[in-house]
Amino acid sequence: MKKLLQNSVSLFVILIVLLLLIPLRPFLLDTLFIINISVSLIILLITMNIKESLEFSIFPSLLLITTLFRLGLNISSTRLILTEQGEAGKVIAAFGKFVLQGNVVVGTIIFIIIVLVQFIVISKGAERVAEVAARFTLDAMPGKQMAIDADLNSGLITEAEAKVRRYKIQKEADFYGAMDGATKIVKGDAVMSIIITVINFCAGVIIGLVQSGMSFSEVLKVYSIATIGDGLVSQIPALLISTATGMIVTRAVSDGSLNTDVATQFLAQPQAMLMGGSIVGLISVIPGMPTIALLLTSAMLLSLGYFSRRNMKLAIAQDAGMQEAEFPQQMASEEDYFKDVNNIYPLLNVEPIEMEFGYSLIPLVDDSGGGKLINRIVIFRRQYAQDMGFVIPSIRLRDSASLNPNEYSIKIKGEEIASGEILVDYYLAIEPSDLAGEIDGIDTIEPAYGIPSKWILPENKELAEIYGYTVIDPLSVMLTHMSEVVSKHSYELLSRAEVLQLIENVKASIPELVEEAFPNIISYSSFQKILSNLLKEGVPIKDLVTVIETIVDSSSTTKDLDMITENIRVALKRTITRKFCEGGQMKVITLDAELEKIIVSSMAKSEHGIYLSLSPDILQKVLLQVSENVKKFNDISVKPVILTSHVVRVYFYRLIEQFYPNVSVISFNEIANNVQIQSIGNIVL
């Protein structure tokens, strides 16, 4: 029985095809017409009661089947009308007589109006709505996918929930794409119904006059009833299906069924019903108007509006009373909750990364309102992980009443590291070195790199680009600032748990190497310190196999973490070279040989390691020389790089890092052999 039901649809489709070929008797045709109307009515009621389109995802296929069924019945009825002198069953005759009412002209006009409503209004409108819905659904797919990834990365949903949401998005895209094509079937069905009606009437007149010898009045009476009846029997189900098509493709903005939405949303606007009832009541005083009907309508609208407003006030008062009654209880329960000292400890948790926003910037963050910051953060985290080999923690986003409306703040481990201010309705135009023209705007400083800029109106964007400005949207300004801050402080975000996770990833592919290194040769804390040293200077830690192998090899000669780190940098020289090399050339600032000798001679050792004991005069001269040489990189848009010998690199970096954090220091041993070094400055005493 179950298998028979599963194959019933296939059998039904085969039966529809047979309708096109096999003649049917009037009784059987009447039965199939009644089934057609019933199925169409059921489909319309289903589309009115579903909450979302995917609850009736078989609709596009069902639309094709019902259309084919209706056309098959049309052809069968046409065969009977033309061969049996209009005798095509009681359903067709009843519909024809009911519409004609003894007047062929009026009945024909009514039939034409019904056909035009079906063709021009319902079918055309449903086709357009389906086309737009399909395009918008497909365009929104990437954004929805990124929103799911953002929720998954931030821990708001599980992997299973993410899989369900991705599947639903794919089903929506497939459904609306199928609906876009299925509506063309509805339109073709309406055209075909008109053609069949014209054929029935014209062919019937010819057959009646020529073959049957009937008079023109008899022919007109017989074939007009049969033609119009047949047309209505096919048009009414078609009208129901077209209406159902329009219903199902407009369910995207609904929260419940159509019945629920209409009742809820109409009753939620009592003021409109009161005003409408009053206006209808005023119309009743116009002479010649149907006063009784207008007054009854007015009274009904006023009553609905009055009772709706009263119920809304009662609901608001009830909610307010419940809140007042619950507030002291909530306060008491909160006090009781924190009497347990264990419940206070969660308040001490510190987020690794936080971003706080003024209220004007909330639209950029709110994903439900079209904000794209979360999606952009997801992309940034993925790209940073691919580039640096380190997955930065989730970024906590929250609004703050303590900030200015246009201000945002970036915090690392609970403390503010950077802040900025952006204008949501403007663009940031970064000034080039050689301006082709001035443009009006609000002077400011680009927050990530400190470049002089202007906030300009959107209509001035194209002009600013012509003048040579680099124009950036507000969201990109904020995201760039955040990414620079996070990249600069990533070494602080490398937790012990993340280090263990990275080690486990290596262990999955090369377990022998991990077992050899940990914890016999190096402890987890020391390994975390080495990785932090690399990240602090912007060296990717993606190649952890090379890092661990170098640690194992260096452990036989030294236990100094600084020296081990330097050896790792040499092992990663291709990575470091790629980071600073451009077009096969590396522009650098070099150290004078005499200065390097002075630095080496000033090395002193303490219980905390080796440090430089330079005199204040020498230190001041070195910093001044660095400042003058770094300025040369401003014109070539390249990150400043100072080249030293392998022995003094780490100590010279620590000497200048607090004064010039954006200057990189590398050694000769960290440069690949196929790179041409170009010195654009030299630091001498």
Automatic annotation (TrEMBL):
<feature type="transmembrane region" description="Helical">
    <location>
        <begin position="31"/>
        <end position="50"/>
    </location>
</feature>
<dbReference type="GO" id="GO:0009306">
    <property type="term" value="P:protein secretion"/>
</dbReference>
<keyword id="KW-0812">Transmembrane</keyword>
<dbReference type="InterPro" id="IPR001712">
    <property type="entry name" value="T3SS_FHIPEP"/>
</dbReference>
<dbReference type="InterPro" id="IPR025505">
    <property type="entry name" value="FHIPEP_CS"/>
</dbReference>
<keyword id="KW-0472">Membrane</keyword>
<keyword id="KW-1133">Transmembrane helix</keyword>
<keyword id="KW-0653">Protein transport</keyword>
<feature type="transmembrane region" description="Helical">
    <location>
        <begin position="279"/>
        <end position="307"/>
    </location>
</feature>
<dbReference type="InterPro" id="IPR042194">
    <property type="entry name" value="FHIPEP_1"/>
</dbReference>
<keyword id="KW-1006">Bacterial flagellum protein export</keyword>
<keyword id="KW-1005">Bacterial flagellum biogenesis</keyword>
<keyword id="KW-1003">Cell membrane</keyword>
<dbReference type="InterPro" id="IPR042193">
    <property type="entry name" value="FHIPEP_3"/>
</dbReference>
<keyword id="KW-0969">Cilium</keyword>
<keyword id="KW-0813">Transport</keyword>
<feature type="transmembrane region" description="Helical">
    <location>
        <begin position="190"/>
        <end position="210"/>
    </location>
</feature>
<feature type="transmembrane region" description="Helical">
    <location>
        <begin position="7"/>
        <end position="25"/>
    </location>
</feature>
<keyword id="KW-0966">Cell projection</keyword>
<dbReference type="GO" id="GO:0044780">
    <property type="term" value="P:bacterial-type flagellum assembly"/>
</dbReference>
<dbReference type="Pfam" id="PF00771">
    <property type="entry name" value="FHIPEP"/>
</dbReference>
<feature type="transmembrane region" description="Helical">
    <location>
        <begin position="62"/>
        <end position="82"/>
    </location>
</feature>
<keyword id="KW-0282">Flagellum</keyword>
<comment type="similarity">
    <text>Belongs to the FHIPEP (flagella/HR/invasion proteins export pore) family.</text>
</comment>
<dbReference type="InterPro" id="IPR006301">
    <property type="entry name" value="FlhA"/>
</dbReference>
<dbReference type="GO" id="GO:0005886">
    <property type="term" value="C:plasma membrane"/>
</dbReference>
<feature type="transmembrane region" description="Helical">
    <location>
        <begin position="102"/>
        <end position="122"/>
    </location>
</feature>
<comment type="function">
    <text>Required for formation of the rod structure of the flagellar apparatus. Together with FliI and FliH, may constitute the export apparatus of flagellin.</text>
</comment>
<protein>
    <recommendedName>
        <fullName>Flagellar biosynthesis protein FlhA</fullName>
    </recommendedName>
</protein>
<dbReference type="InterPro" id="IPR042196">
    <property type="entry name" value="FHIPEP_4"/>
</dbReference>
